Amino acid sequence: MDWSIQEIARLAGTTSRTLRHYDDIGLLKPTRVASNGYRHYDDVALVRLQRILLLRELGLGLPQVAEVIEREKSEASALETHLALLRQEQERLARQIASVENTITALTEGGTLMAENMFDGFDHTQYKEEVEERWGAKAYADGDRWWRGMSGAEQDAWKKRVSDLNHDWIGAAESGIDPASDEAQALARRHVEWLSGVPGLPTDMKAYVTGLGEMYVADPRFGKNYGGPQGAEFVRDALRVYADGNL
């Protein structure tokens, strides 16, 4: 038995575009291609896709995912490793939930906030390896130093800026405007100004911005920030127009 690419995308909670991208880079080849050109996947491919998605959820970049999968040939053994990592993540989330519950209790019942417990389970360094692989160790170190140097209020302001930008991108994408329109290009300018506030960026901003746009589409984690695949494509196209004309 096998399943069409549309069925697999629906079952796995991903997109046909993502599966085609995995095919293009050799990460997940279809079991067969029908006469109409549609890709189909069997149960072996499904197990491989499960491993890919698990590794992506753990924060690995696509090159790292490919390396891990090729290194661990035994599917059962590899899934045992995944399971152990998922249990570690489950434990971290449990600590994070308990931390937030304790803070709520302290705020609502007049208790004392315990600073040493408030951030248990939180870790902004979880993507360290991926950032270093994409842009180098210096880029991560500069960004990490910059973030840690902010006050709590400054970090909150930065997060709100990102949230507002993402919200406006989603609204623009859903409105159906042209990525080259003045409204979309104003958002692209804000996006680039936001990126420019982070230290350690590459000197070739045009290549950097267009590359990020492609990553927003290829990586479902980023696509979620813009309302899904179509929103991510809109952001990519708008950034590409802006980069071509201004960077």
Characterize the structure shown.
With 247 residues, this protein is mainly α. Among the domains are: 1-71, Multidrug-efflux Transporter Regulator, Chain: A, Domain 2; 150-247, Orthogonal Bundle (Globin-like). 71% of the residues lie in helices and 4% in strands. The chain has 13 helices and three strands, in the order E-H-H-E-E-H-H-H-H-H-H-H-H-H-H-H. Helix 3 packs across helix 4 and helix 7 packs across helix 8 (137-148). The longest helix has 35 residues, at 75-109. The chain is globular. Mean pLDDT is 78; it is low at 113-125.
* Record field, number of beta strands: 3
Low-pLDDT segments, ≥5 res: 113-125
Largest sheet: spatial strand order: 1-3-2
Shape: globular
Question: Per CATH, which architecture of the domain at 150-247?
Answer: Orthogonal Bundle
Give the averaged pLDDT, no decimals: 78
Structural descriptors:
Multidrug-efflux Transporter Regulator, Chain: A, Domain 2; mainly alpha; 3 strands; 13 helices; 247 residues; Globin-like
